[in-house]
């Protein structure tokens, strides 16, 4: 029961309550790898990176093939700027994802955002070109949409986020050059005034309030192809 309640709180972005309920569940079943991994995910959303890393690593000790635990371990390592270790986690998760393209793409984009050369394992300073397609992650609940955009070495003054009713536009300034990092055409309407964002050294977390609270089938609206005129 506690785990089911925790899962529900997680979906509704009540992450502190989710942590409490996962903790209750883990007192009864301390080796539940899925609960450890999901509590790690809740800690990530609360920006409690060390706790997130601890839980993801504990989950992998129980089940080394738990794909989402590798992902969450990688995100936590990314957040504490242990980039080479993060790459290893993402590569392992990518391997476990197999041919599941929707899962595989998550690992591919996060791996790309590390800017690490696979052969030399050299950490590079990001350029403006690197920031044109940063990795991102998103959660859509009944009331909010939360999008995390990952990029190394961010400063608050280098990030601009613009909200419109059906758009979220994110720009980074890297080496004096401003680039569009993210331009979302949103599936539903948001309330721009009630939407917000926060910047850490490795990501921008964007929280958008839904205007109507209705269900979204996806994050973005499908592009509408133009129809040539018959005249």
From TrEMBL:
A GO term for molecular function = protein-folding chaperone binding
Kindly state which keywords UniProt assigns to this record, in alphabetical order.
TPR repeat
A Pfam family annotated for this chain is: CS
Which residue intervals correspond to the TPR repeats?
33-66
Question: Which SUPFAM superfamilies would you find in this protein's record?
Answer: HSP20-like chaperones (SSF49764), TPR-like (SSF48452)
Describe the location of the CS domain by residue ranges: 131-220
Q: Tell me the PANTHER family matching this sequence.
A: PROTEIN SGT1 HOMOLOG (PTHR45862)
Would you tell me the protein name for this molecule? CS domain-containing protein
**What species was this sequence derived from?**
Aphanomyces astaci
User: Highest lineage ranks of the organism?
Assistant: Eukaryota, Sar, Stramenopiles, Oomycota, Saprolegniomycetes
């Amino acid at each position: 029961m506690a785990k089911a309640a925790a899962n529900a709180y997680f979906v509704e972005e009540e992450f502190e309550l989710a942590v409490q309920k996962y903790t209750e569940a883990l007192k009864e079943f301390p080796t539940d790898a899925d609960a450890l991994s999901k509590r790690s995910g809740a800690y990530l959303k609360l920006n409690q990176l060390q706790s997130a890393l601890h839980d993801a690593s504990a989950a992998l000790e129980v089940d080394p093939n738990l794909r989402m635990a590798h992902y969450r371990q990688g995100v936590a390592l990314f957040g504490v700027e242990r980039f080479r270790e993060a790459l290893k986690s993402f590569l392992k998760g990518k391997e476990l994802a197999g041919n599941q393209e929707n899962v595989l793409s998550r690992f591919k984009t996060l791996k790309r955002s590390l800017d690490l050369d696979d052969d030399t394992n050299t950490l590079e300073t990001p350029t403006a070109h690197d920031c044109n397609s940063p990795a991102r992650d998103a959660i859509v609940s009944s009331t909010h949409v939360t999008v995390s955009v990952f990029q190394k070495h961010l400063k608050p003054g280098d990030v601009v986020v613009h909200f419109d009713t059906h758009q979220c536009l994110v720009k980074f300034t890297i080496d004096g050059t401003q680039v569009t990092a993210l331009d979302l055409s949103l599936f539903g309407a948001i309330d721009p005034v009630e939407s917000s964002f926060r910047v850490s050294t490795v990501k921008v977390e964007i929280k958008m309030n839904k205007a109507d609270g209705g269900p979204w089938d996806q994050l973005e609206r499908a592009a509408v192809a133009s129809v040539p005129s018959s005249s």
